[in-house]
Specification:
Elements (H helix, E strand, L loop, with lengths): L1 E5 L6 H9 L3 E2 L2 E5 L3 H10 L3 E3 L2 E5 L15 H7 L4 E8 L13 H27 L11 H17 L11 H9 L8 E7 L9 H12 L3 E5 L1 H8 L3 H10 L6 H12 L2 E7 L3 E8 L4 H8 L1 H5 L1 E7 L1 H7 L2 H6 L4 E3 L10 E6 L2
Parallel strand pairs: 1-5, 1-6, 4-10, 6-7, 7-8
Antiparallel strand pairs: 2-3, 3-5, 9-10, 11-12, 11-13
């Protein structure tokens, strides 16, 4: 899963990227660990030769949104953004003498400006496609691809014209598949990071809280973060980090909450495999089956799937180990269609 930071120049995108990457990145791309205390406890108990956490790929390679009266996004931005799975919008909510676009701090304006441009970009695609479909005889023949496109595009055109992003709409599986084919930008999940000043790092002000609450009501995850403070935290050792966080009244770095918010917005859960050679946390789409989990591990395991041995994390924690959970009758045998739950520990039996 690939996440791209977007926003205006001087919003703090690169500073936040560097804080989240914490030295794990190469250039503008980083595989960022998903913080998960459950994984840490499993590793501590199993003591494997290798421990591999779940990660998301974060990139800070997109062009800045452009201020002024011209186009907000460059063509390069549009091309690269369409390849992403999620947009992470970093919004300035701190005073800056170097911000070239806006002297006045107005995070709500910036959020609306970017969202409106994403919607307008998609609306242009819809209008162009509908214009071409007027010439297609299949567009009036039920069941054909052109017919399905026409019906779907006519439905979403009005929503886009009213400024509503596609991600806010309830789509059927068929409609979602059509939307993916066209790589609509407003259909992509979005998380908003409101970048506050150091004084608000531990307790954002009322205006920022109101923006976050409003976005939450609209279904967009948002939170406050001080990129400068997060950058300082990322450069400290574990003990110094705890002391630094305590000074700001924080329980953990906001960058950890950011990664979890991204993970959740992508619709991902985590399952675990706990072996002595390698214990690993695996990212999986919410609602996926045991067969899909097996394929995530390796396609050969999926092809030879016999059954899944499953222990929930709660049962594993209560028992203290996989072996103890099995001895206590907490392990279940599940088939290919079992829907994997967040935190499940799996052992896939296969024919090989």
């Amino acid at each position: 899963m690939k996440v791209g930071l977007i926003g205006f120049q001087a919003a703090g995108k690169t500073t936040l990227f560097q804080a989240v990457a914490a030295g794990a990145g190469k250039g503008s791309i980083a595989a960022v660990r998903v913080p998960d205390p459950r994984f840490d406890r499993i590793v501590a108990q199993v003591r494997p030769k290798k421990a591999t956490p779940a990660t998301v790929t974060v990139t800070d390679d997109l062009d800045d949104a452009q201020g002024g009266t011209g186009r907000l996004f460059t063509q390069r931005f549009l091309d690269e953004a369409r390849k992403l799975d999620l947009l992470l919008h970093v919004v300035r909510a701190f005073e800056s003498d170097t911000a070239p676009y806006h002297a006045e701090v107005d995070p709500q304006r910036d959020i609306s400006t970017v969202e409106d441009e994403l919607v307008l970009t998609d609306l242009q695609i819809v209008e162009n496609r509908l214009e071409r479909l007027k010439k297609s005889p299949n567009a009036r023949t039920p069941g054909t691809p052109d017919y399905l496109d026409r019906v779907f595009f006519e439905r979403i055109r009005g929503e886009l014209e009213s400024g509503r992003p596609i991600r806010a709409l309830e789509l059927s599986d068929e409609e979602a598949a059509i939307a993916r084919n066209y790589q609509f930008l407003s259909a992509k999940p979005m998380v908003v990071a409101v970048n506050v000043g150091e004084k608000e790092a531990g307790s954002p002000g009322a205006k920022v809280r109101a923006i976050i609450d409003r976005l939450g009501e609209l279904g967009t995850q948002a939170f406050a973060v001080s990129a400068e403070v997060e950058m300082e935290i990322s450069q400290l050792d574990a003990e110094a980090q705890r002391e630094f966080l305590a000074d700001y009244g924080l329980e953990e770095p906001a960058s950890a909450r950011l990664v979890r918010a991204v993970y959740d917005a992508l619709g991902l859960i985590t399952f675990f495999t706990a072996g002595e050679n390698e214990t690993r946390a695996w990212a999986l789409r919410r609602g996926s089956t045991a067969l899909k989990a097996a394929d995530t591990i390796h396609s050969d395991i999926a092809r030879g799937f016999i059954r899944a041995e499953v222990v929930s994390y709660a049962d594993w924690e209560a028992a203290g180990s996989w072996e103890a959970a099995v001895a206590q009758g907490r392990m279940r045998l599940e088939g290919k269609e079992y829907v994997v739950q967040d935190g499940d520990l799996l052992h896939i039996r296969n024919k090989s």
